[in-house]
Backbone:
């Protein structure tokens, strides 16, 4: 049964949104992956529009940082739990055994899949209403200037622009694990030079870990009063 807080009528769409790949049939359309991909874009659009309309004095960098602080694994996983989506999630035996039902990356995915399902059934306005209602506390928090301390990617972007006017690039260097228990290794680079490396169960999680590692490298360099490594100096 679809939770009352979710404006969705189609049991079939909800079933797909709750079906992990480990429990899906042979067809990729039977799992939430395609729907989650779609929903991720919808959530990003709705949050970006919100900050564009409500923060007229914010520049592109501030809006980007704010959006990244809201549209990330932590807040979306929390909303999935609040809606009770973990109780509706369908997992294969292996994924169930390894804790998939409470894994933040999976919870984030099914929240986005639900948003995708709402859009498919009722269009953008209904999906927009749902996203804004669910993410309202985080939108208010970020609008007040309290950006999530766990958003290492946004912080690294800010530092990189300030120090070198450059943008970090993230690269998946290794992907392993079983089909139901993936592990990713991501490197963050500036001008093809590796600055940090991180690991995670999803690409997003590994990117955050890599950004955190890069920030620690930069901080150690600053503390040593040796300056940033010459290879990152735009004057060299």
Residues:
């Amino acid at each position: 049964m679809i939770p009352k807080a979710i404006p969705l009528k189609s049991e079939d769409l909800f079933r797909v949104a709750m079906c992990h790949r480990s429990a899906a049939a042979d067809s990729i359309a039977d799992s939430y992956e395609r729907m989650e991909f779609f929903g991720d874009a919808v959530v990003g659009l709705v949050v970006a529009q919100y900050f564009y309309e409500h923060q007229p004095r914010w520049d592109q960098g501030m809006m980007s940082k704010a959006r990244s602080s809201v549209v990330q694994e932590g807040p979306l996983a929390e909303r999935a739990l609040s809606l009770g989506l973990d109780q509706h999630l369908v997992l294969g035996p292996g994924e169930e055994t390894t804790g998939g039902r409470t894994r933040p990356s999976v919870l984030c995915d099914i929240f986005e899949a639900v948003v995708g399902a709402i859009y498919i059934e009722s269009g953008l306005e209904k999906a927009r209403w749902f996203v804004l209602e669910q993410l309202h506390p985080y939108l208010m928090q970020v609008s007040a200037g309290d950006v999530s301390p766990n958003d290492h990617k946004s912080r690294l972007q800010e530092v990189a622009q300030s120090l070198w006017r450059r943008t970090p690039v993230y690269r998946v260097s290794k992907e392993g694990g079983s089909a139901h228990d993936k592990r990713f290794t991501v490197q963050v680079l500036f001008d093809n030079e590796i600055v940090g490396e991180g690991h995670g169960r999803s690409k997003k999680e590994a990117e955050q870990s890599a950004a955190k590692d890069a920030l620690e490298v930069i901080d150690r360099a600053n503390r040593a009063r040796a300056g940033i490594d010459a290879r990152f100096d735009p004057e060299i």
